[in-house]
## 1
Amino acid sequence: MLALSGCSDPEPAALKKEKPGKICGVWISYIELDKMVQSGNFSDAFKAYAEKFKDFGITDVFLHVVPFCDAAYNSKIYHSRYGTDVLKTAVEICHKAGLKLHAWINPYRVKTSNGSIDSLSKDSIAYRWLFDDKAENDDNICFYNDGIYLNPAKSEVKQTVLEVVRELCRNYDIDGIHIDDYFYPTTDSAFDNKTYADYTKETENPLGLSSFRICNVNSLVSSIYTAIKFIDKDLVFSVSPAADIDKNKNTFFADIAAWCEGSCVDMIIPQLYFGFCYKNEDFCFENILSRWKDLAGSSGTILVIGLAAYKTGTETAADGDEWITRDDILSRETEICLKDKAVFGVAFYSCSSLFSDMELNTASREKIKTVLKGKI
């Protein structure tokens, strides 16, 4: 039922046989990539960031190369987002600077707003599936809340995502494949009611809807792992789930514990985007960190902690004024993680916030850099 049979090896990756040194990662989102490309000289813009990364102590870059079932590289499967091979340039620059680069993909997301299919490129696979005349493709695409998504239950979707993973691993000198927290976008049964109804009609003892969805996501995750390792066992497969372990499984249908126990991921980077004074004490940084250590600890999966550089200088009802009155939240969290033997580093979301010239961001960054000296 868990659909994790492809990941039964208790030590499937070189990463797990030899624990890495402490990692310091940074995410570069498609929004930041867009700005670099629009600057007119992507190479120079990316080199400037790479120099900052190296000086700061960054070791690993997570680059958003498939944000909406499109590609920041020369793909034969997805249409090009930029019309130029951004990934090839980024890999060369990162490796020259001594940085590892992980190709970050969103497997299912096509659009998150403005659900009009007419706004998509006609080269988009979602557009083609919706307007071809093949009956088997009729429900490869699902709609929810003005968003457009690939249907996780469909075999054509799974095979397409796997082909994208293989394309990246074979054609680029990347150091890993990375996926984040976009899985099923809703618990609403209307999202995939036709697919689920067809499944129940064809199956003697069908799973309930939640288990059906969990199984679909598990199947993709385990298959991505197998596809990566078949090409190169040293490539790292990492996932960055949301902070709420229960919500991951019950709302997004991402069973992180099963992935860790089944050795289907090399590294998890939960998004612990909370300070020390969060109103819900369960999510105060050290409390939520403890839960993730418990989850990852018994499986041998590498645990790296995602930190919220983007919150510096912000105020919300749940966060209070912690992020606008203190400049040491991220440095304290970094130090806690680097001193903890169960944690193998940190990653910051995202690069533009981490390296912002705003006064509070600058002060925060200098404090983090002080902690990183001698630790990475």
Note: The CA atoms of residues 357 and 363 lie 9 Å apart.
## 2
Amino acid sequence: MIVCAVPVKDLVSAKQRLTAALGPAERAELARAMLRDVLGALSAARLDTVWVVTRDAEVAALARRFGAEPLAEAENRGHTAAVAFAQAEAVRRNARVFLTVPGDVPCVVPAEIDALTVAAREGEPAFAPSRSGLGTNGAALTPPDAMELTFGEPSFQNHLDAARARGLAPRVLVFRGLGLDIDAPEDLGALIAEGAATESGRLLAGWRVGVAR
């Protein structure tokens, strides 16, 4: 079984770093649109199961509409803990490959997910960096508990170092779509410029949002 986990804390307080460019309602609407874009891409990829790790009822309902399974944590403990929770579930269900991507990479396409899946081999975890090279926007492990995953910049280099320390040979894949995570106001311009095919990009273009207000 090939499973991909998407951690989503909640929508109401999503994307606080975009406060300079977007109001609370806009941030929540953008977070919804980005999650729909991500789940749409995952549903078209060669995956057996998609899990959305969340305690938010609205997010869980949205996940089900895309054929994904919500995984409910006992409490919101952050991105790293959510991924660890999903890894443990993947082990429990005897998954062969475990992937994780965030819910704020709206330009991701199915081919990128498939390439990340194929790249992961036993002893060779696969990682996709953010465009800054600091964050980890995609990880694939076989088996699912090949190593711990820890997020927060500079997680990408940390993952490479941690893999090598365990005697693993990490593989690096750089993707245009998956590499664009929407965290800061300057990312909005890139999404408008490159995301015409996404719901998120069209939403921002309709708001006439620039890099900042």
Note: The mean pLDDT is 93.
